[in-house]
Amino acid sequence: MKIELRIQPEFALAYQRYADFRPGDTLRLYVRTGGPGTGGLFYAIEKDEQLANDAAFEVEGMTFVIRPQDFWYFDGGALTYDKRYGEYGFFFSNPRLD
């Protein structure tokens, strides 16, 4: 299954600046529960290896991967960054989840 996800180049560059991720890194996007103060779902990211069934997105030299069981959360979404908020400027939106 192919998923649609828009990852803004500024999002990837900000992770390089604030989280010390580098071009060549593979970063796993996944769903976590129990968000701070919300108890809901939110995206998380960590260094990992790409698996055979992962969806993969190349942005600014980094590979973002998603496991099939998390496709439902990311499909149709966008990962953006707003520099006005510095290290807190990372945003995920998905109108399909509204």
Present the secondary structure layout.
Blueprint: E1 5-7, H1 9-19, E2 26-33, E3 41-47, E4 55-59, E5 62-66, H2 71-74, E6 77-81, E7 90-93
Parallel strand pairs: 1-6, 2-5
Antiparallel strand pairs: 2-3, 4-5, 6-7
Descriptive notes:
The protein is of the alpha/beta class and 98 residues long. 15% of the residues lie in helices and 38% in strands. The protein has helices spanning 9-19, 71-74, and strands at 5-7, 26-33, 41-47, 55-59, 62-66, 77-81, 90-93. The strands form two sheets. It has a four-stranded mixed β-sheet with strand order 3-2-5-4. Strand 2 (26-33) and strand 3 (41-47) form a beta hairpin. The longest helix has 11 residues, at 9-19. The protein is globular, with a radius of gyration of 13 Å.
Question: What's the short version?
Answer:
It contains 2 helices and 7 strands, in the order βαββββαββ. The protein has 98 residues and is α/β, with parallel strands linked by helices.
Features:
98 residues, alpha/beta, four-stranded mixed beta sheet, three-stranded mixed beta sheet, globular
What proportion of the residues is helical, as a percent range?
A: 10-25%
* Radius of gyration, whole Å: 13 Å
Structural class designation: alpha/beta
- Which segments are poorly predicted (pLDDT under 50) over 5 or more consecutive residues? none
Count the strands?
7
Assembly status: single chain
Tell me, rounded to a whole number, the average pLDDT.
92
Shape: globular
Give the CA-CA distance, first to last residue.
Answer: 22 Å
Percent in strands: 35-45%
Q: Biggest β-sheet, characterized?
A: 4 strands, mixed
Please give the order of strands in the largest beta sheet. 3-2-5-4
User: What's the helix count?
Assistant: 2
Sketch the topology as an H/E string, one letter per element: EHEEEEHEE
